[in-house]
Structures are given as structure tokens and as C-alpha cells.
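MODEL INPUT / OUTPUT PAIR
PAIR INDEX: 1
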Amino acid sequence: MTETFGRYVGKIASRFDTPELRGQLSSVPQWLGSGKTLPLSHGSDQVLKANLSIDGKPVAVAIKIFSRQGLIKDWYDRRHESKAERSYAAAEFLHQQSLGTAEPIAWLDHWQNGRLLESYYLCIHVSAACFRDALIGIYQQERDNAVLMDLLYQVAPAVQNLHEAGFMHGDLGNQNILVPKSAAGEWLPPLFIDLNRSRRALVPLGNRQRAHDLARIALPGGYLDIFKMIYNRHQDLPEDLASLEQKARQKFWGHRRRSRWRHPIRFLKRLRQREPASPYPSEKNLWLWDEKTSQPTVVLGREEKRRHRNISDIFSALARGLIASPSLYLRYRRSLAASYSKPVALKDRFGIALQPQSDYIEQEWALLNALGNPPVLVRFCHHETPEDWQTAIALVERLHLKNIRVMVAILQDRRSVLNPASWRDFLRMVVGAVGDKVTQVEITHARNRSKWGIWSRRDFKDLMRPLLELRQEFPNVRFIGPACIDFEYLPVLSALADLPKGLRLNGLSHLLYVDRRGAPENKQGGFSTLEKSALLKAIADWSNRVESKVIISEVNWPIQGAGIWSPITCPYETEQWRRDKPGETELDYANFMLRFLALTVCSGHVESVYWWRLSAHGYGLVDDQNGFEPRPAFNALKFFLQLLGDACFIKKHETPLGQYLLEFSRGAERILMAWQTSGESPLDDCEQIKQGWDAFGASIEVPVFRESPTYYSIEAIKSRAD
């Protein structure tokens, strides 16, 4: 019920309604003019923080001062409700329903001759950043996917609860959502403010009203999709709502982009004051790390990424591919024809990546020893802290003292491109600390994936330019690269061409993933792992910018059921991924790993392979979320290295399509490795098999081809025909 307080009409919430407070509110201008207020926002409608005395105790309050408005608007509000009254009524509803808002205290209006001269809304002040400022902090400082996901898991369901309660905010911009934190730094349920445009219904909102609110949420495309799925109880938005939301978003943000033409004076003023058009970092500079999968997340949506692609770079890569293709094709055919034609000593060809973190090192040290201390890959990441780098340096030194071969990979982030001096100092620090203790150093990572911070040829050139100085300062260090990823070899050609003049790499490194193709023998456009390896070798032979050595510096298969720890589902398991359950079973993972190692190295095309990585819930040989429990792949690799780690590949026997039979020598002993891509068949025509083992070292009596590799110690073998 509306009451009168001096010259004001309004209402005070019953919990705060005391003669003391009424006295303070009867003279708001004098009270606000006391000089004890703090501006919280600027603009036509100003928000101040002040202290009210309630029951003799100071209470921090937020006061929204609504500006004077036009005659027609005053006429309308006189017959309906003012902004202050609407704000109070909406806040009272949200507070009573526990839907999230600052507790309302009062609203006050001063009318005179039909004009609204003063209008105030008061609520308890909550010390919290708004959603917009919290996002900016994450983008610019924390750069951590987990922090952002925790925030979305609070905000999105809260918006959904609003809509289910029949409440439409009307202006649900990021600035109108407060996101408080607990004393422990955890996000708490959000509070909705600036409620004067809100509307209420007795039933859940329809799709058009929901779309109106959702369209004002500002997030990069990858996370906006996640926000909407969390909002819809972890399901895709219904088709009608998705369509309406997209139309409302285009209309709203298109209107915002045209503000320079609607308000040219305001726009020119911002230009003079050098105010950014958006408070957020540019889309290209958004970079967030996901610790669960040890990779950056895909921040932008497809359309956003397309906006920032450099067309000239694409045409340049295509032109280089066309020019190189005749010579490259001939080399590829020769390389492929020579597959498995030469003996290959396997010692130190198969490496494993470790995690240089204090809570991993001792666990992984014991596991590495159980594998027989194969070569190790250690990553140094520019986005990490100096303390992290020192931990990694100490691990390299420890491995070196143990006479374990070490390769180092140095990974960039977006700030590496934006701050060349920082990247140069980082490279020099790492190479200076470990260069004399490692076999090779890989520079940059996945340059053909924009999520790693490289958007153009120029970005890549800038990152590689410090190598010219490092070459002179550390002449004995072997640098490899360019570490492109997947079966995308045009970027490899382009990266080699873009190396600084005078720089020649000591090996061609590549991240050769086949995880969405299943088995390593499966073909992608006519290329299985064998053909992909042969083509990489042909590129290394062809290019004068790199020595003719191929190093696969990263490969694995994602584990089925690993959820957001899987590199193909992070940072959010969508409805499709929950339904399709991507990834491989632990047994298939083990089988594919062994077969991949044999196909790449024994073919003669690949110098060495590093498995990424030893411990990881979503893709490791060991489950780091389950007490470092070894998976079947760990035991399979352990036996493989024990049996063949010091052996020499001799030849690949002729077998029917889909069957593989490789022969190795270990001193005077001969060993066969056999598998087939599906099913099981007897391994006939073998003489004097002395002993047989399955992939995990258990004895087997009857020689077979199966999907899981088997091994046989032999004295002789007959020639085999198709």
C-alpha cells in the first residue's frame, strides 16, 4: 500500500519500517548531499552506495536515482507505476520467491503538478561484481575455463528459474546480474538488478519472452551455446525457442552496433576519450585454458571464427600446396612404396609425456620406472606461472641425471602473440635452463587451430622469429616443429614456408590424431595412419626448411565415458555427446595404441612417437582421477616395451587385407607381432613357435590374429601369400 513520507509517496518494506528510517527518507536530497555516498554507476539513472541507520546500526544500501523524464512518460507513469515502484514490486516478488535479488527496502516518488520530480529505489547493497565484470576478469586475468564454467552453472539455471516463475527481466544484460562469491571464493547464486522493465505472469514464460531475455546475454559463441543448454536443463533449446532467440539476438545486437549512427555525438565523445567500443577483449584475444584436458577451450562459435579468418592466408596455403603437389606426390609414392622395407632399431623410439606438477611427479616417476624408463616429453606452457616452469625444469634435470632421454615442447598462448617480448624471454629461459639436457625442443603447438592463439601466418612468423637468436646462442640445441595437428598438411607446408629466413629445423614434428576415425588402419580420404605417415615423411624429404625426420609428438585416443575430461567433449558434455558416447573403450584404446606405434615407426616413416600422456582421466595410460590406476593400455605398453623396446624390426610379412604380421629380432631371438582389424582368425603356417603372449604378457597356446596384438617367439616362419 502506498504511503506518504513528507513530500514523497512510496512504500517501505515491513522489515525496515521504523520511525528512524521514515525520518531519513523524508529528506532524501539533504541526506544524499551529505557527501557520504559512493557512486556505483554513471549515466542518466545513477546508482549510489550509502549508509542508512536502521535500528541504530549502519546498513549499506544501494540507491537508484531515476532521472527526469518527458511529459508523456510522466503522464503514463502517473496512471500506472513509476520505474521506482516497478523496481520495488519486482524485487519484492523475486525476494519472496527466493529467485535472486538484493533485498528491497523502499521506493519513493515526488510528484508535483503531474510531473515526476524525484524518484528513488532503495535496496540492501550487495558487494559483488556484475556478470559482465566477472567475465572480463576471467578473460583478462584468470583465463581459466573451470572458473567460467562454475559461473555459468550458477547463472544459467537462475535465469531458467526466473522464466519458469513467469518473470521476464526485460533488460537481462550482463551488467544487470550480480555474481557474489563466498568467503572461499566460490560463485554463489546470482542476484538480478535493474528490474524496472520487468514483467510478471502467472504461468511460465512463453518462448518469445524467454528469447527476449536470453538474447541480451553476452558470451562468446562456444560458451553461449553451453549457457543455453545449461539453461534448458542440459538439453538443446527447442527448435522454436532457438529460432526466436537467434532472431532476437540479431535484432538487439544489430541495434547496439548501429548506435554510432543513432547517437553520433556520444560515439565521437567515446572516440576522443579512447573508450573501447566493448568492455570485453576482442574475440581473437579470448583464450581460456582447460586443466582437465590440458588444452585451450574452443571459445568462439563457428561464425565468429569465420569472421577472423585471413582469406589471403588461405589462398596462400592453397597456392603453396598446388605448387608443391607434383614433386610432393612423387616423393609420397616412393615413400609409401618403401614402407617396411628397411630394418628399424626400436630403442628409444617410443616416448611418454609426463605432467610436471608436484602432485604427479612421484606417482609418475614410479610408473615410468615400471615401463622401463622410456623417453619422456615435458611441456612448458607460456600461460603457466614461473613456479610451474621451475617444477618442469627440476623434472627435466632429474630425468637427465637418470639418463632418461627427454624432449621438451614449448607451447604458446594468445598472450605470446600479443606480447612478443614475454614470449622471447620465456623461450630463452626454458632453452637456457634445459637445452643441454634434452634431445630436442619443439617450438609452438597446433598452429592450425585458432584456439591455441595463432590466427594468421604473421602470428606464427612472430612466434618463430626468436629462434634465429636462440640458434646462435645455443647452437647444440635441436629445434623441431612446426607441430601442426591432425591430417591437415597444407598448414604444414605453409608453416615451413613461413619460417624465418635462415632457420632450418632439425625435424618435422606433428600431432597426428585419428581419434574420430576409430582404428589407426581406418582411412580418411584414402589415407590411413600408414599413408599419413608416408606423406609426412615425403614433406620432410621435400622441404629444405627441415631435416628429413618425422616426430609424432602427440597422439592418443579419448576414453569412452570420460565426460568433460575427454578432449573431444570438454568443457561441457552436450546432449549429442551424452547420447553418442564418443571415445574408445579401454581395451580398444590399448589395442589402437600398440598398432599405431608399430605402423608408424616400423614403416620407416616416423623417427619416434610420444604418447600424450601417462596420466589423464580422459586419455591417459593411467587414470589420474582414480588413484593413478593403470589402464589396460599401460600394461600393454609395459609388455610391448619389455618385449620389443630393444628389438629391431626386420620385415612385414605378406598377409591378407586387414591382417598384419611384423617380424622383429632381439639378439638371436625372432619375435612376431600379429593382429587384424576385426574379428579373429588362426595364425597358420608358423613353425617352431616357442612361446606366445597376448597384448598384456599372458601366455597363449593357439596362435591367432585378433584385434588385440599377440606376440610369438619363433625359430622360423614360412613365406605367406595373399
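PAIR INDEX: 2
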Amino acid sequence: MNETLLFASNKLDKYDHIIYYLKQHGFVNILTASNGEEALKLLDTQTPDIAFLDTDLPVLNGFQLCKLMNSSPFSRCNNIPVILVSDSQKNCMVFQLAKCIGAYLAIHPSFPLEDLLYLMQNKLKSTSNKITVNNIKVLIVSNDQPFIQLTKNYLLMEGYDVSVTGNGEEALHRLEKEKLSIMFLGNHLPESNVSELIRKAKESIPELFITIIIPQDSEWKAIELLKAGANDYIIQPKEERTASSIFANTLTKYHFNLCNQLLGVEELKLHSLIDGIIDGIIFMDKSGKITTVNKAADGILSQLNLVRSSDGSIIKIDSIATKDIYSELFDRKQLSVYYEINITGEVERHFHVIAYSVNQFIDEKIHVIGDRRKRKRLTRAFTGNNIGIVIVLRDVTREHQLTNQVVKSERLFAVSNLVAGAAHELNNPLAGIQLCTELVLNDPAMSEKALKYLHRIQKETEQIQDVVKSLLTFTGNYTLSKEQININEIIEEIIKQKTYQFDHANIKTIILLGNVLPFIFVDKYQIRRVLLNIIENACAALEVSEYDKCLTIKTESLDNVVKTTISDTGPGIPKENLSKIFEPFFTKRANKKKKGTGLGLSIAQSIIQQHNGKIYVQSEEGKGATFVIELPAMESH
């Protein structure tokens, strides 16, 4: 490779890593210039294969040089690809303006050098037409021949594709047939005709840049035509020496208008991309003011507690002080900081907060590093001013729920194995106790007192067996023995059994049993266990209650469901515990003397679910608790 490069900059030391890299890859002939005038003198005598122009070049900057190289007086340079190097400006406007004036590429020193080499090699191999602005078509609508000649000469010299017409109808016809970019409207047409022409032209090509030509002191006419949709106006030049600056001014406006349009499209793409991210994205300046926020962040912030100062800047995001974020990123130079936000309540929410600093690169140092192909290359380490931070908000509630479900499943598996083993060990001695009790009961010589205690042993043994059955049901190791029953029968039996306890604890009972209830097809002993457990929990809560002690049990039939409601006037259940009370081993009984194992409600839920029913709780701390059991009713025939 023997290509020649022109590198024009007054700060070559900042770009020596690019020059060094290109020399290592075959670009050995490198011409240098420290200002625009020196670059023009080199171009007058030599024709490089590629030109690197600094956008901040003295005398003539890179933009101006590029435009000159693509103009008619410098026709020998028209085919030279120009790469604009911008050290101070790294934004979309630079890239779009570079494209408008015919540059092949615009880069910042941080541009990957492998990519730069690839683009250069492909450009040198290509046989594309010269890079000029002659794809920008201009239409002059005028009958003033001196003005037409003056305008046309200037535009052709600048590389534009120029056509001329003398009337509005022909202009509209051209707009339908060609993709015009700029239109100059002379002052020979009546104002009404010009307004109509502007309106129709804009309908045909909305992005068309229309410049109207008006006589001296006719700004009032310009106002009306600008209202009609014209983009700019110029006073008709009277001599050639003033024409160039007048036309240059309006063409600059055109290019900046085009850049703004392109920038608007890029910004729309960027905002659409950011809004499409499921994580919340927030950009904040150095004072804590939000400059950009996406839809996901709006939704998350509405769930968090924000503390703002009088000027609107954010002081705290829930429990996180923004000053701490800035201190970690700016003072301690951390690459990122990470926080967690956990919101407890009826519905728990969990969020991860990750913050990064946003830097404006202003200084560099050259150093050598190895790449993945085991060869060395030059790169830059950038440091710069911190101009703000970006915060990523991630809702990880679902992940927490899944993790908890996994933990719960593991705990249930362990409990199932434990309970299954314990139930087996209990059933054998219980069977022996029952058998011995029955044998003794059949002895006619037994006294009345002994018989009484033996019946008590038999009854308690049956109750233990019921508990074992419930535990096996909880673990899924028990087959339900279903039968057709009326749930009122079970409740009446339990109330009769518990009458003494209610009286002893001064608990008032209100029993509201439905008169005509459909039957339910259930395991009677398991459902009895569920109801008994809930009633015993209510009694335990009422025994420590400071208010009137009242237990209400109600049954009713609703939409093919038999609904049982058990309410108490106890201390209630704290909001943060409502979602946990059906978990195994969770217990928060107010009555410490009767603290349970935490398995009762878990077993109850398992039994009801095996009967295709539902069990849930409604409670407010200080206002008692209500447990609702819904079981499917049998179809009547």
C-alpha cells in the first residue's frame, strides 16, 4: 500500500496515535499542515488519496476546507475523500453537517482505529462517483436574467445542481418530477401568486427550503411570504461582490435547517429507543435536575418517595440521597454505584438502582495495550469533566417472588419429608393404643370411672389421627375420603365442642348459618380440621383483646360456592404479615402462651386447595381479622 494522506491540524500531537496506526498499516506517505492556508498550498501541488481535516483548523477550518475541495475551482480535489476529525465537538450536528458539505466521514479521536482502517481501505477500493454536493438540486424561479446569471454562477461554483424556470406553473411541474431541495423565488410574480406557489410547493415537498428574493426596503412583503411558508428571504443583490456573502448566508441556513431536521430524527430515534427499554432510565445534571426520563422510569418513580428541593432538583430517591451518589461517582471516582430499594406493605416491591457518571472527554494520554489477536495497537485513555449521571432503575419484584417461591418449595419439600416420616412413626403406636383401648373397653369388669377415661383416650387418639391425616394432606401423601355433607353440621359440632372455652374466655359468639345450603363433596375430617384451626386462632387472638370479645361465624351460598366467614374482634393482623400468614412455620400470635408451630394455616390452605376451594384473609391492625373459605357446591339434580 502506497497511498498518500494529508493530515491538517495545529495539534498533531493529539492525533499522533492515528498517524502512527495508519503508518503501521501501509500509509507511509503522510503530508501535514498546521492551518488551512498551508493545506490549500499542498493541495495545489499534490493530490493525496485521503485528507484528514481538523474541524478547528486555524485560518480555514475543516468544514470550510472540505467545502472548497468539493467546489469547481478545486475540481482536481473533488474526488479526494475527506475525513473530518473533531476533538472539541462530539455530537450529531457535526456528523450531519459533515455529510451535507460532502465529507466522507466525521470522527472523534476515540473512534475505533480498526473500523477507521476498514472504512478507508473500502473507500479507496470503491469506484463511486466524486463526493460533492451536486446531489442537492436548486430551482431558481425568476425572469430577471442578471439575477439568474449571478445566482446560477455562484451555485454552480459551489457544486449545486441548478435549474431555472420563469413561471410558477413550470416550477410546480418540476417539483412533481424532481426531488428538489432548495428553491429561490424572484420578485417578478404577484404576491398572491407567490404565496400560492409556496403553499403548493410545501404540500408537494414539505422539507423544501424556500428563499424569496425581495427588493430593498420590502420587508413587509417578506413577512407575508414567510407566513405563507417561506424559510428565508434575501435582499436582491445589485453587484457581484456582495452576492457571494448573501447567497452563502442563506445556503448556510439551509444546511443548518437540514441538520436540525436530521438531528430531530436522530433524537426521535434515541428517545424511542430509550422509551422502549423496560428498565427505568434517568439522566440528571450535576445539580440533581432530571434532563431526560423514559416511560419505565416514570412508572417506577411514581411508586417511590421522591424528595425535591425548591428548584425541582432531586435530593432523595426513597432512602437514597443523591449527594451520596454524586460523592461516590465524582469524588471517589467510582465507575458505578449500586443500591437496593425494598418497599414493604400489602404488596412488596423491590428495585435495583445503578448509577453511572456521564463525562465530557477533554484530555487524553497515549498508551499501548494488547488486543485479542495478540498484537499491539495504540489507543487513548480519556478523562474529562463530569457533566451529570445516568440512573438505571430496575424492578426486580418478580425475581424476588420467584426466588421466594423456590425457597418456599424447598422448605415445603423438607417439611413433606419430615411430616411423612413422622406420620408413619405416629400411626403405628396410635394403632396399638386404639387396639388396646378397644380390648379394655370390652372387659365387663371395668368400672364406670375407668370406662370414662378409656373413652377419653379413644377420642383423643382419633383426634391425633385426624391431625396426622391433615399433615399427610399438606404433604400430598394422603388420599381424601370425600362424602356429601352440609357444612353447617361441622360448624355446629365444633361450636358444641368449644362452648366451655367460649364461656371461660368471655367470648361472645354470633352464629349465622344459612338455612338452605347446597351440599359440598369433601373430606369431613379435613374440613373440620381447617375450621377448628381458624376458630382456635381466633380464640387465641380474642383472649388478649382489650375490646369486646366477639366471634362471628357465617355461612351462605353464592354463585355455586358455599362461603364460610369467620370473623373476630381481636387485635388484627399487621399489613406486612398478611401475605405471609399461609407460609409454613410463620407465626405471629398475639397470645404468647399459645404460640403455634406456624403450620396450621399452611395445612388449612393445602386442604382447601385440594378441595378446589379458596381461603383468604381480610384484616386491618386493631380492627380484627376475617377468614373466608369458599368451597364448590355440589350440583343439584
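PAIR 2 NOTE: The mean pLDDT is 81.
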